[in-house]
């Protein structure tokens, strides 16, 4: 068991959290969530001992071992792949190294023999004789072939390094497992494997992740970092989201009712305080007014943008027809027709394939062969994966930037749209060229909403967005009444928005009206 007692942490005047008291118990998986900058990853570092809190303590059960997913991909470049995995259990590797050094001595003494005997006993207790086999099994299950096992980490590409470091964290059945964004840079097959592995894991798991599908799948509790506190909720991410929204709504409704009642009481007191016949009632209402206490609704670090794609022009029967579309090195003889109300999720082993398809559909790139025929009623709105052409070197502030895409150039009108996307007050006067990746995407979404397109094309729309913005975007795409073509590494978005999946690998290899989860089940069966 991992226990947190009265832990507080702040940097200068910035208070991340205070008086945190939590118990992380065996058999449970805890998802740590919160706005960017709330302190999620910092809290993991407090748990691991990398950061000392200002107050309080973190205690691990006696003889229990904690394992942490390493973030530095180059930290083990000089080690072999198998040894890197086994370094997940540092004590075991220390014993192995000390044993090897002893047995290599030419003047092996009786004292060395006694020490070797002690090490052999501890080595056996820690499962040392099966350790290398276990490491190789983990690597094989993560699709890292045997020919790489003896290779040095520095010779691997980044995608394989990520898998090796994941195997390192899982190695040796740790009592407490800390995972910071474990699904980043993993393919969907590996993510599904990890989900199943963690569902069968019998010890304690603590995870920071922006992957909502992953959090829903594996978490039994959610720890919400907000308001300078860490609040524990039973259930997965969706259950936390529904619960937190309900609680916030109830508190606002209660406050509204109490404010109305307070006004009624004040009006009565003002009217009848000097009236002798009403003095008792006025006094009674004064006491009631004094007892009224509004809920203390503290400002949350978590902000949800408002994303709602509307259009005025209805879509006709002819929408989009693609015939024999070919682009050398990407795809050939691609055919598909888009019907009303279809939201098509595109899948490919190469993400550049889908980007090229979208560039051809939007007219940015010409195909080598084939035709793209758009219906006359279509108003297209596009969110490209690379939006640099809209922002690089742009010296306009955000109001001016958004004005380029609006028929109404009134500043307050444009500020309203920017406010929806969390650019309020002075934020709306930032220069477009200095925005962060997430801010650029939110500006592009404001642009799309202004355009009023009835057909959306979105290439990796969740890139750079925080969990709150992803949730708002997901809801906006689900509620949209037009057609969407999109691709995303966010499995929850793919599964809850798409009602048709098209897979392209060379040519069209899959095309059915199914959800993303159904597609995965069909293609992996």
Structure commentary:
- The protein has 525 residues and is α/β, with parallel strands linked by helices.
- It folds into four domains: 1-64 and 175-235, P-loop containing nucleotide triphosphate hydrolases (Rossmann fold), CATH 3.40.50.300; 77-159, no CATH class; 241-291; 320-379 and 452-524, P-loop containing nucleotide triphosphate hydrolases (Rossmann fold, 3-Layer(aba) Sandwich), CATH 3.40.50.
- It has helices at residues 40-48, 81-86, 90-103, 110-125, 128-141, 158-170, 188-200, 212-218, 237-272, 279-291, 351-361, 388-391, 398-403, 411-420, 437-451, 467-479, 491-497, 516-524, and strands spanning 2-11, 14-24, 29-34, 55-60, 66-68, 176-180, 204-208, 221-226, 229-234, 320-327, 331-338, 343-347, 369-374, 380-383, 455-459, 483-487, 500-505, 507-512.
- Strands 5-6-7-3-8-9 form a six-stranded mixed beta sheet, sandwiched between helices.
- The model has no long low-confidence stretch (mean pLDDT 91).
Q: Which key phrases capture this entry?
A:
single chain; 525 residues; alpha/beta; Rossmann fold; 4 domains; six-stranded mixed sheet; 18 helices; flat
Order of strands side by side in the largest beta sheet? Answer: 5-6-7-3-8-9
Which bin fits the share of residues in helices? 40-55%
Distance between the termini: 38 Å
Task: Write down the Rg.
Answer: 29 Å
Query: Could you tell me the strand content as a percent range?
Result: 15-25%
Q: Looking at CATH, which topology of the largest domain would you report?
A: Rossmann fold
Largest sheet: 6 strands, mixed
